[in-house]
Amino acid sequence: MLRNKTNNTDKIKLNLKSSKVYVLGGICAILAVFSIFLTIEAATSGAEIAELQKKEAQLLTQRQDLQESLVESLSVNSLQEKSIQMGFTKVGNLVYVSSSVPVASLPNVNVGQ
Fold first, then answer.
1. pLDDT value, residue 75
2. Whole-angstrom Cα distance, residue 62 to residue 56?
3. Total structural domains in the chain?
4. Do 78 and 72 touch, CB atoms closer than 8 A?
5. Residue 96 lies in a domain
């Protein structure tokens, strides 16, 4: 009978050890899967960052081109050429009107005479 108890105790200890092995193996498997998942996420995030940096460089180049074309279109020579194409002419004689001389006013009319 003592031998039976010892055998049962050994079986329980063996089952307990195998249970621990299964639990630790499961935890290791979960950690391995999680590690693989994080590696994949990091790789895809890196690719997305590289793509965004590429777009940023393109947008910066486009912005610089637009700024250059804006400066060119607002230059004095370009504006003069466009105004001539639209039919405007350069004024020969400029006449300045003094603010002290009235340009349009009613004549003095004496009412009641």
1. 83
2. 10
3. 1
4. yes
5. no
